[in-house]
């Protein structure tokens, strides 16, 4: 049995905390909202972010970071990317050196352009870091549907321990060492999923979707390799697997945002009516800036950012993509 602190009580954080509890670990989950803490502890449900899921009664929630982190041997961070640095800074005084840090957050800081592993290296440098990513909707994991993800770390022991903690009869964890590739793939696919939603919202068919997934994966891999990632990572679970799921699955928040954008909803209107974070929004901005820094062509990501932040019309964005200069595929 491992003592685990889960930081972040959105749907995915709650699903992972419940999974770990059912695997026999002693799990405490930190939630920013007092009402989430109260509902998990008294009703065994996260009424705000995961209301349809009955949680294991052994899962304990707290609003106090120091209580959640006390004695923790493993930290599972699932906070949104734009607040992860702040959460790590608040947590730092209560973390024991050598505690394993498993990060299931998918995103890029928009100002520093740091991945979550970079943030951890700055704020919690004494902790071995593991990136956990792959095609996994929270609802389906909670239902016990067969799911496969990847844990990547430069520390083989931390990676193996993470595999052992999370894996069970319906949740299979593969191991890897390409932290940068796994993080980038998991982050950037959210932006491509917004584009997939735009196509659906405009009533487009299978041809455009197939082209989008293929060319979207190509530009994700281009940026990843420029940052030192391994090409093979992008054909695996964190790359192709998660891209297919997020671009085609009805449970994808990023895809749903794209549908609404195509139907005339603005980003501001979406944010005013949706509590859950669509990570692809900030990632579109961060990835565009990273691409400019490294002189990498990411035309789909750039057009998604233009729709989100510059008011570009979705049909015009598609026209811009289709009328680019002709070139070889590879």
Question: Summarize this, please?
Answer:
The chain is an alpha/beta fold. The protein is built from 15 helices and 8 strands. Strand 5, helix 5 (116-123) and strand 6 form a beta-alpha-beta unit.
Polypeptide structure, described:
With 330 residues, the protein is an alpha/beta fold. The chain folds into 2 domains: 3-177, NAD(P)-binding Rossmann-like Domain (Rossmann fold, 3-Layer(aba) Sandwich); 180-322, N-(1-d-carboxylethyl)-l-norvaline Dehydrogenase, domain 2 (Orthogonal Bundle). It is 52% helix and 12% strand. It contains 15 helices and 8 strands. It has helices spanning 11-22, 34-43, 65-69, 81-91, 116-123, 138-142, 156-166, 179-201, 206-226, 237-248, 253-262, 267-273, 280-294, 299-309, 314-322; strands at residues 3-7, 26-30, 60-62, 74-77, 100-103, 129-133, 147-152, 171-176. The chain has an 8-stranded mixed sheet with strand order 3-2-1-4-5-6-7-8, sandwiched between helices. β1 (3-7), α1 (11-22) and β2 (26-30) form a beta-alpha-beta unit. α8 (179-201) runs parallel beside α11 (253-262). 50% of the residues are buried. The model has no long low-confidence stretch (mean pLDDT 96).
CATH homologous superfamily grouping of the largest domain: NAD(P)-binding Rossmann-like Domain
Give me the Rg, rounded: 19 Å
How do the strands line up in the largest sheet?
A: 3-2-1-4-5-6-7-8
Strand share of the residues? 5-15%
Arithmetic mean pLDDT = 96
Q: Which class best fits the helix and strand makeup?
A: alpha/beta
* CATH fold-level topology of the largest domain: Rossmann fold
Inertia-based shape: globular
Q: Tell me how many strands there are.
A: 8
Q: What is the CATH top level name of the largest domain?
A: Alpha Beta
Q: Secondary-structure element order, as H and E? A: EHEHEHEHEHEHEHEHHHHHHHH
Taking the sheet with the most strands, its summary is: 8 strands, mixed
What would you say the CATH architecture of the largest domain is?
3-Layer(aba) Sandwich
Instruction: Calculate the terminal CA-CA distance, rounded to whole Å.
Output: 48 Å
Estimate percent helicity.
40-55%
Q: Low-confidence stretches at least 5 residues in length (pLDDT < 50)?
A: none
